[in-house]
Amino acid sequence: MNNKHSTRPSFRKMLQAIACAVCVLLPFASHAERLKDLASVQGVRENQLIGYGLVVGLDGSGDQTTQTPFTVQSVASMLQQMGINLPQTNNLQLKNVAAVMVTASLPAFAQPGQTLDVTVSSMGNAKSLRGGTLLMTPLKGADGQIYGMAQGNVVVGGAGASANGSKAQINHLSVGRISAGATVERSVPSALAQGDMITLELRDTDFSTASRVVDAVNKRFGPQTAAAKNGRVIQVRAPLDSDARVSFLGSLQSIDVTPAPVGAKVIMNARTGSVVMNQNVTLDTCAVSHGNLSVTINTQPVISQPAPFSGGQTVVAQQSQIEINKDPGKVILLKNSASLADVVKALNSIGATPQDLLAILQAMKAAGSLRAELEII
């Protein structure tokens, strides 16, 4: 069988997959969103915790101590703290122990005694953490202080299957999780209750959205309640009483605000060929040549005049034609369209690779025809 013909169906499937990956957000009417979805309260945040510990009770799947000396040192140090002194020449051969890193997130306003979920990740060359038990591990913050203690049975998720003597494992055995495996030992001070001002931080910097948030807050709670410092930071005057402040923040975050339209943006994954764009992306007149591919976009004004004595007005609209040519002679004409989505779909239909798409989009951006921010991931 000819290899050229045998690979054609898979090539078509690849093109279909790339075409299906082109996601276009069609124009839609602006709608209001809750303020809690647009902004966060400064000082109300999570803090990352990290610790080093040992997982014991493994079924021979622990670290190979000849290649991970820190595991042996950790075990010897732990035993010494328990009053057991090992000879200096004793070479431990541990197969049921693994050195791990334990991570967790300390939520805002967490209090001592509260439990947290932790993630346990192998540091050495352990084959599996399944069935192991994490020994007491202090969890520290960025300041080096201990904020929690973790301990418990490690659960490794996933699925396994076996047939005809062969086994298939669909999971990562060197990472596990312990639900409610850590206890908070210290709370993090919060500056939320200090002063009569709280600060809102927009998730995306936008001066128009910041101005709309200020208008909505002042309309709800009265003039001079909110003031924008820049395109991201908004200061709001809040009650001094803690109970009244909590009620005020609940009402504040429930305010509906219509955000300003986002800027035109195109995101492309250079590995898979996926292209994502929003509704504000437009194209201007340009001509791009890339290998045996050429893309030409022509835009011409179309004048529509009203009938005599009708009292109407003359309307000038832009009519575009997109021509895509691939040698030895396949031509696609897209009339009355200047949509980037149409260009991408047409390029996919004639066999353009992700690298072709990337080169053509970058050329359009450099020529000033692609009126959008282009981000390559």
TrEMBL record:
Source taxon at top rank: Bacteria
Pfam families with a match to the protein in the record: FlgI (PF02119)
Family matches, as InterPro entries: Flag_FlgI (IPR001782)
Subunit structure, as described in the record: The basal body constitutes a major portion of the flagellar organelle and consists of four rings (L,P,S, and M) mounted on a central rod.
Record gene name: flgI
Location within or outside the cell: Bacterial flagellum basal body
GO biological process, one term: bacterial-type flagellum-dependent cell motility
Entry's family note: Belongs to the FlgI family.
Keywords: Bacterial flagellum, Cell projection, Cilium, Flagellum, Signal
NCBIfam families: PRK05303.1 (NF003676)
Main location: other
Molecular function as annotated in GO: structural molecule activity
Entry keyword Amino-acid biosynthesis: no
Protein's name according to its UniProt entry: Flagellar P-ring protein
Gene Ontology, cellular component aspect: bacterial-type flagellum basal body, distal rod, P ring; outer membrane-bounded periplasmic space
Organism: Oxalicibacterium solurbis
Signal sequence region: 1-32
Role played: Assembles around the rod to form the L-ring and probably protects the motor/basal body from shearing forces during rotation.
